[in-house]
Amino acid sequence: MTTVIAFILMFGLLVFVHEWGHLIFAKRAGMLAREFAIGFGPKIFAFTRNETLYTIRLLPIGGYVRVAGEDPEIVELKAGHHIGLEFNEAGKVNRIIVNNKSKHPHARVIEVERADLDHRLVIEGYEIDEEEKLFFEVDPKAMFVMDEKETQIAPYDRQFASKSVPQRAMQLFAGPMMNFVLAIVLFAILGFVQGVPSDRALLGEIQENSPADQSGLMAGDEIVAIDGETVGTWEEFTAIVQDSPEEALTFTIEREGSTEQIGVTPAAIESQDTEIGQVGVMRAFEDSFVKKLTFGFTQTYEWGTLILTNLGMLVTGQFSLDMLSGPVGIYDATDQVVQTGLTNFVMWTAILSVNLGIVNLLPLPALDGGRLIFVGLEGIRGKPIDPQKEGIVHFIGFALLMLLMLVVTWNDIQRLFL
Fold first, then answer.
1. 161-174, pLDDT tens digit by residue?
2. Using an 8 Å Cβ cutoff, are 67 and 162 in contact?
3. What percentage of the chain has pLDDT greater than the value 70?
4. Which of 68, 179, 274, 373 maximizes the CB count within 10 A of its CB?
5. Looking at the annotation, which residues are catalytic?
6. What's the rounded mean pLDDT across residues 178-193?
7. Cβ density class 165-203: b for 16+ within 10 Å, e for less
8. How many beta carbons lie within 10 A of that of residue 315, not counting itself?
9. CA angle, corner 100, sides to 107 and 69, nearest 5?
10. Which residues of 345-354 are buried (b: 16+ CB within 10 A; e: fewer)?
11. Tell me: the pLDDT tens digits for 240-249?
């Protein structure tokens, strides 16, 4: 149950922050954000506030902000339609009854001849069996009422396409940007709570009955050489140890101003179908205020670089699809991380936030990066790509992403349960 709660909180935070970025910059640009959703599929919970429907949906595979103009508008009034009109105190249409007009006895029923709800905001038509042509001004926040459900109209100046290239680009980039901001904040919190991991090969906690404990290594020891080879960083130290399972090594250490040599034989540990060496020591932490201030940025950069490197390996074939994880694999990894403590869970959340930000910026259709490509092309060409063609590209891209999600999830299930 602890893992389930932790996974829901982590998933909700990552998606909320990402979509909140999209939402805030959409509203700042004057776009009508119709829906802010966490998850896909059937609605579990929903409420409306300030023009936007907020929903939590069943399937934990992402989220979205639905902005007016990104998809075809919900209702199109055509000549010959019979509709009901209700008016506000200023005499403008504030409700357009599309069907079930009998449930709205006070609505004025007309036959539409022409309607412009994008620019002029007028409806032209005739009362039933009358010949006098009527003109009705429409309130910019008027509602369509279909099957007794209200949907706000979206004049062109509230639609995504009406905004400048920089405004649209910022609205798309804001989601990944907020994931990077979240990672920086979480890493910074870790830095101030537990200190900053030392760059040197400085030992922290020693695990009881581990090779390090049995050999006499102590917290505070600094490894300066192994088998005569100089060691300057923690990464160099761990690389040598991991490459030497069950091999006798001689550690040269500095302890309280003196130098000593201690023999250590790393234990052999199974990791991803291979054996690595492990001596049972934790990395020491430093209490440097300056490093704490910059820790969030440096860790976000380092993890971002590592993730990009792995993505590059995937493209070149050095990294297979079988090694990718979907929601099932992430849940299993979260289960393991939760058991190691809160600080590791916070770090895991920060790492996933960096990953989510980078993946969404990939130049693939349906992702933020793919949509940014189309906005960039519009900026270069001076005119937009045909919306229908762009929509087809994004639809195909989304379908392929869902297929990839199914493949990765199946791989997770095979690894964990079969």
1. 899 999 999 999 99
2. no
3. 90
4. 179
5. 19
6. 94
7. eebbbbbbbbbbbbbbbbbbebbbbbbeeebbbbebbbb
8. 8
9. 85
10. bbbbbbbbbb
11. 999 999 999 9
* 375-399 average pLDDT score: 81
pLDDT, one tens digit per residue, over 266-303 is 998 887 668 899 999 988 888 888 888 899 999 999 99
**381 residue type, one letter:** R
Closest CA to 138 of 97, 91, 172, 170: 91
The one-letter code for the residue type at 159 is Q
CATH of domain 197-286: 2.30.42.10
| Residue 272: other Cβ atoms inside 10 A | 6
| 182 in Cβ contact with 17 (< 8 Å) | yes
User: Domain residue spans in the chain?
Assistant: 82-153, 197-286, 289-417
pTM reported for the whole predicted model:
0.82
pLDDT of residue 199: 82
Length of the chain measured in residues: 418
